[in-house]
Design goal:
The structure is a single chain. The chain has a domain of 66 residues: 434 Repressor (Amino-terminal Domain). Helix content is 65%, strand content 0%. It contains 5 helices and no strands. Helix 2 packs across helix 4, helix 3 crosses helix 4 and helix 3 packs across helix 5.
Amino acid sequence: MTRWNRYYQRQLEDKKFKALMEQELASLRIGAQLAAVREEEKLTQTQLAARAGMASSKVSAIENQPQNLELGTLIKLAHAARRKVKITFPKAGYNDK
């Protein structure tokens, strides 16, 4: 195990850090999913943005660093890619107190 891995594992023992990390990873998964859907539909960021009525820079930002993403924006992008939005709330697998 590398020094970085040991450090990271110690940081994950901190519940606040772990929650922040999981939140960030969830956001990144949304961006990655959008990019994958766009590529499956053989669309460029510019084409998807035009269909959704927004700037291509916004699509790029969502795919790369989604922050403060509004549900309405996500729905517009999904419809532009001929998809639906499905939100689930799976159990986290740990005890939050």
